[in-house]
Amino acid sequence: MKHRTLIILAMAFVLQWGVIGHALWDHDRTLTTGSVHRFQVQPIDPRDPFRGEYVILDLAAENVQDADTSALFGANDPVYGTLGMDSSGYAIITALSKEAPEGDHVECRIEAVYSSTIRVELPFDRYYLQEGKGGMVESLLDMATRRDDQAEEAYILVRVREGKGVIEDLVIGGRSVEDHLRESAP
Amino acid sequence: MSKAQLLKELPELVREGLIGEDQAARIRERYGQSQQDREGRGQLLFGVVGALLVGLGVILVVAHNWDELPRSLRTILALTPMLIGQVLCILALRKQEDRVALREGASLFLAFAVAAALSLLAQIYHLPGSLEGFLYSWALLILVQLYAMRAAFTLMLYMAIIAWYAVLVRVDLFDAGGMPYYALLGWLLGIPALRSLALKNGDGARFRWAATFSALSLGIIAQLFWEDFERWHVLGPLGLALAYYLLPEVCATLLAGRVMRLGMVRWIGRLAGLGILFFFSWQFPWEDSSTSLPQGTDLIPWGLMIACGAYAYALSFKGRDLRNGSLFPEALVAFVLVLALGALHTGLAQFMTNLVLLVLGVSLALQGIKEGSMGRMNLGAAIVAVTVLMRFFDLDISYALRGVIFIGLGLAILSLNLRMMRRKRSHEA
């Protein structure tokens, strides 16, 4: 093998391991050391040819109420959302800024700016499931989110660290989705 | 006599003493492949198909998402195929660099293993992100290995991924005005790998396929930049079709002495050019489109594609035998004048487009008869037949007359083929 070829091949491997390894390490650290937040969800069930089945999570926190729309935010702008909690204990974004704020925050992107509301895109909007279970989870989420009782609502547990968020669990009616699926397994 | 027949007859000719062993070997070298080449091709086919099946299998297994397995085990499973692929690549280069099948197979397997690792990473951590983002990340992660492995099939996969990405960007971000600029960049990043293949083995089957995929990929990407598409816009695709058609001549001029076979690139250009001419042989494209010139961002792809066509035409003009060569490039150039005429009189422009097609078809058929090429003769006859048949739909002709024309065309094509076959037989006899 020529010396030059070896160097190019080594560069390819370093790139492959570097990108995939860094992503693994970063998300794993967030999942193990990040602070926990609950985000209320609404579901949809699509499929990806490579990554398989998942449910899209439409998060209530993506609508930032009473936001300062004078801060010249435009669609697709990257911003930081400061995390707070509403009266029911769910995570909400209390403020948006272009600089990273103190305390727990997430990196997000502006989707649309309305008169007093800003719609943002949070960096966690899907929950992957084993093949064939997407439809079941979607109906579980449908039933849960239709009820008036707050305790039965659905939410995701998200670990947040240095602006990054990783989903730890999807909770429906107070129980992990994995428990629901285990219970319904033949 | 076909190449295969000639090669088959060689032992008989040697036995009869008509040619010597030396001459037979030289004929084999000129027209055929050696036994070793044939075996190599078989190994290559099995190597590539094997890697493709295993790689796709890994993707499907991964897409199942085994959520009952612990996270650590899934992480190991995500990375193991990639590690195996990398080890195979090292082995392919270190031990048997000349074994193309092993190199192609290992590289293709690694490419799919990288996709599997990215997919599992997304599943384990529930990462967001569109399919186009996934495809582009995958393409970039396999780009560098292309250069080290000189792997034509991975390059084809790369070109296909880039084209897929470009289509998704245009479809998904259409309302937001998204343009696949990064696809163009990705395509350009793959071209040095194609050039490297051309320099190493420009007349090989691997290069031919890689060139065909690259041409198709660019042909698709280039059409995704239009914000609007009016009559004059067609000069862009027409320029690219002309450039593809003339690429063999351009390469022969630029790389004097180097043998290069460009696979189906010329056919892509031919089909695209004919498609445009057939399209404008109808009445509606002339009446339903405006004559406004491209504006704004449309000007960039439009100008680039026209420049490619003009450059190829100018460069190949001297080297081409206009009397005996195909008039296809001239037909496309003549259509540019017809387009200009369309600004004054659309009916006349439509008539002239049909005339260009008929002249092209007849000239190709005559040339085919003269050279004894059935393929060229039938292509010419097919162009004439399709042009005439299409007119049945926009002209008010009685069914009886249509029937007579059908019969006439069919008989003409059959008799041309029969005459050509008789002539060939008499030559062989």
Q: What can be said about the biggest beta sheet of chain B?
A: none
Distance between the termini of chain B: 11 Å
Strand content of chain B: under 5%
End-to-end separation of chain A? 54 Å
Topology:
The complex is a heterodimer of chains A (186) and B (429).
Chain A (H helix, E strand, L loop, with lengths): L2 H31 L1 E10 L2 E2 L3 E8 L3 E2 L13 E8 L5 E7 L7 E9 L4 E4 L4 E3 L5 H13 L7 E8 L2 E9 L2 E2 H8 L2
Antiparallel strand pairs in A: 1-3, 1-10, 2-3, 3-9, 4-8, 5-6, 5-7, 7-8, 10-11, 11-12
Chain B lengths: L2 H13 L5 H11 L3 H29 L7 H24 L5 H25 L6 H19 L2 H21 L8 H21 L3 H18 L12 H20 L10 H15 L4 H5 L10 H19 L10 H15 L3 H26 L2 H21 L4 H30 L1
What does this structure look like?
- The complex is a heterodimer of chains A (186) and B (429).
- Chain A is an alpha+beta fold.
- Chain A has two domains: 1-33; 34-184, no CATH class.
- In chain A, 28% of the residues lie in helices and 39% in strands.
- Chain A contains three helices and twelve strands.
- In chain A, the strands form two sheets. In chain A, strands 1, 2, 3, 9, 10, 11 and 12 form a seven-stranded antiparallel β-sheet that branches.
- In chain A, strand 5 (78-85) and strand 6 form a beta hairpin.
- The longest helix of chain A is centred in the N-terminal third of the chain and has 31 residues, at 3-33.
- Helix content of chain B is 77%, strand content 0%.
- Chain B has 17 helices and no strands.
- Chain B has helices spanning 3-15, 21-31, 35-63, 71-94, 100-124, 131-149, 152-172, 181-201, 205-222, 235-254, 265-279, 284-288, 299-317, 328-342, 346-371, 374-394, 399-428.
- The N and C termini of chain B lie close together (11 Å).
- The mean pLDDT of chain B is 83.
- At the A-B interface, helix 1, strand 3 and strand 9 of A face helix 3, helix 4, helix 5 and helix 6 of B.
